[in-house]
Amino acid sequence: MRKRIFAIGMLLVMLCVTIAGIGSAGTTGVMAEDGAEGIIWPSGPEISADGAIVVEATTGSILYEKNKFDKFFPASTTKILTTLVALENSDMNEIVTVSYAADNYVSKTSSRMGLVEGEQITMEQALYGIMLESANEATYAVGEHVGGSIARFIKMMNAKAASLGCERSHFANSHGLHDEDHYTCPYDMALIARAAYQNPEFMKINGTVTYAMPETNKNPAKLLTNHHWFLNKTMKYDYCIGGKTGATTQAGVALVTYAKKDGMTIISVVMHAETWAKVYTDSKTLLDYCFDNFKTYKMSDLGASGTDFPSMFTGDIEEFNEDRKNILYSGTGGGLVILPDAVLPEDTIKKIDYNADADIGHGENVIGTITYNYGDKIVGMADIIYYNSTDTMNEALFNKRWPVFMIPVDVAFEGIDISTLSMSQTKDRRIPSVSELIDIEKVGPVAIGIGIASFVLLVGLIVMLITGRRRR
Predict the structure, then answer these.
(1) What SS3 state is found at 465?
(2) What contacts 299, CB < 8 A, 6 or more positions away?
(3) What's the pTM value of the predicted model, to 2 decimals?
(4) Which CATH number is 51-296's, of 1.10.3570.10, 3.20.20.70, 3.40.710.10, 3.40.50.720?
(5) Contact predicate 272/252, CB 8 Å
(6) CA-CA distance, 287 to 52, in Å (whole number)?
(7) pLDDT of 37-47, one tens digit each?
(8) How do residues 377-411 score in pLDDT, each as one tens digit?
(9) 382 bridge partner residues
(10) End-to-end alpha carbon distance in the chain
């Protein structure tokens, strides 16, 4: 009798432990989410510069970092922000007239494109001069034109930086010549560079090697040449698609580089290097490291497990599937997940934040975000866009935007056999599976294993008790 009481007591203890384990797993998530155990992340190479960061351009995932929040002077990498603000607040055909201040308040011995007071050029020509020749006087002229005054333009620059999430930056001028109140950090500069990447006109200018500057009312025609060594072939690097240089005595040498290989675009920011040779060597080292150690996955191709996109078309968001021409697709982030080579997509945790109160209007509507985490790292993030229009989404437009759409083409258009769709893609009422009732990702295999073991033990004890009674 005592043995049976002891066995039943042990069973109750095990059941309590199981319940507690499941409860805690449901509230705190997988241990890897805390960035502690089981996280595989390449350590990255050593570089000589004092600060650096590398991000994937589409998702913003950080692939490498060194003193990413430390304060540095940006020098002429400032011009990325200057050009972005100008592009967003002017037309390329507008005429910019060079003022006395633009000609004379910027050092004559600094980097210039040769503009003089009274010279008239288009905004497009000015921006090519800024990004290729790092023309300081052109930034002043553009700032006056766009802002109405250089002071107001600088306020616009700081407002733009703040809107991007830059919390450790302040800009005191449009060109980057030294000012103690003009500073940033690698992380903030990456935010700015990534925002600029999303502007097609910026990337066109930024990636141009030479630009034929036509004759103006003050100067003859000339050829502008990009200062970035990877672009002008001073140093060979085939994957570079753009970038910006910067150097002052106080800033040291800074370099922002955009590079693309095998469908992945990354942005490196290297700050406070000792020499031009070292900043380019550091940049090449970081770019090669990231290309060699990371890979991209389309969110729509992550398989039929918990990371499968069709599974998101259930519950609250299901109402948007009533008409297949109203397409759900990923916006900012491009529907990509970036992972180290040794990490599998199923090692990530997907989170969907749906805004049920979003105002739905004509065209594209952001109705939520989807985030993929690996441990404490965000490896993929995208807006969830609901396309709402009286015009039917045609297949040509669909194919043009692929792969940002979250659902395959055969689901998007008429003529499909609904029986071929997975259960999660239909609106039929059905009994939810165990995996839907219990969040497997949060519970974890250990808690489930304990639960199964407890069940088996319970059955065994019941059989034992019944058998014992019959023997009596």
Answers:
(1) helix
(2) 307, 309, 330, 335, 336, 337, 370, 372, 380, 382, 406
(3) 0.71
(4) 3.40.710.10
(5) yes
(6) 11
(7) 568 888 899 99
(8) 888 887 877 766 654 555 555 555 555 555 555 55
(9) 370
(10) 13
